[in-house]
Amino acid sequence: MKKHTIIMAGLAASALGGCIQVKAPDKPIEINLNVKVQQEVVVRLQRDAQDLIQNNPELFPQ
Question: Are the C-beta atoms of residues 60 and 53 closer than 8 Å to each other?
Fold first, then answer.
């Protein structure tokens, strides 16, 4: 009797487990990334180039 009940419960659970539906949304998913690009890289590169020119004036004649 217990074996029969366990089997029936397993069958019922597997039958109900297949009833899940997943539906894609109507509208596309929008990901808004607020990215702020700073100009620090350019300033650092300018400073590095300026230091290189000042430290090696023979390489960059005026």
Answer: yes
Rounded to whole angstroms, how far apart are CA atoms 11 and 29? 38
Q: pTM value?
A: 0.30
For each of the chain's 62 residues, which pLDDT tens digit applies? 677 788 877 766 666 556 667 788 888 888 888 887 766 666 677 888 888 888 888 887 76
Tokens of 17: 């487990």
Determine the Cα–Cα distance for residues 42 and 48; give it in Å rounded to an integer: 10
**Cα(62)–Cα(52) distance, integer angstroms:** 14
